[in-house]
């Protein structure tokens, strides 16, 4: 009954436990953890996005119902997080935003990619990367704008938008995603 679930989840959590144990016993210090994290988020995952999107057959039609179902749930969690942080903990707007986004950002990259690919195989790649890509393009600007509004309260909207755009165009995940889509669209072959 639990066989497939255990087969998929156990290796992922086993690897997490190895990492946790390694840092707990001092085998990995914080600089090594930071270096590994930077490698994964600034290089490995963007390259995975680039390669996968450059070589995958993308859908001809944007799956609006799929995106709507994901983002409706995300929006409900986000608004519930803001509301509950305000109601129960009486936090500032910036703290409400951080709490709400902590709850509404799933761990799709570190945990989602391996679990979903093990569970559903290669046919899950395009839907998964559509979510990863659009999540960064939609949620990061929304988060940044809300956080900047909460921090300054009276900051100029153009400054907030400029900071948000800079954060987006300099984000390695977004760069990998857009580069992969461009290679796919223009049929640029990166490697065989």
General description of the model:
Helix 4 runs antiparallel to helix 6 (125-152) and helix 6 crosses helix 8. With 192 residues, the chain is mainly alpha-helical. The chain has one domain (34-185). The chain is 80% helix and 0% strand.
Query: What summary fits the major beta sheet?
Result: none
Strand content: under 5%
The Cα radius of gyration reads: 19 Å
Number of domains: 1
The number of helical elements comes to 8
Query: How many β-strand runs?
Result: 0
Protein topology:
Blueprint: H1 3-24, H2 30-55, H3 64-89, H4 93-104, H5 108-120, H6 125-152, H7 157-169, H8 172-185
Helix pairs in contact: 1-5, 2-8, 3-4, 4-6, 6-7, 6-8
In brief:
The chain is an all-alpha fold.
Keywords:
192 residues; globular
């Amino acid at each position: 009954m639990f066989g497939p679930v255990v087969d998929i989840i156990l290796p992922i959590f086993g690897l997490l436990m190895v990492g946790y144990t390694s840092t707990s016993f001092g085998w990995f210090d914080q600089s090594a953890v930071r270096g590994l994290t930077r490698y994964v988020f600034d290089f490995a995952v963007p390259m995975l996005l680039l390669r996968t999107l450059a070589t995958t057959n993308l859908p001809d039609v944007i799956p609006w119902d799929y995106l709507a179902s994901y983002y409706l749930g995300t929006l409900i969690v986000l608004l519930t997080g803001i509301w509950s942080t305000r109601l129960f903990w009486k936090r500032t707007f910036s703290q409400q935003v951080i709490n709400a986004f902590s709850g509404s950002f799933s761990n799709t990259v570190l945990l989602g990619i391996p679990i979903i690919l093990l569970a559903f195989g290669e046919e899950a790649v395009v839907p998964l990367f559509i979510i990863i890509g659009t999540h960064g393009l939609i949620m990061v600007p929304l988060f940044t704008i809300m956080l900047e509004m909460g921090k300054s309260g009276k900051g100029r909207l153009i400054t907030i938008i400029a900071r948000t755009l800079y954060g987006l165009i300099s984000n390695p995940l977004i760069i990998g995603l857009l580069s992969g889509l461009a290679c796919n669209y223009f049929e640029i072959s990166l490697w065989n």
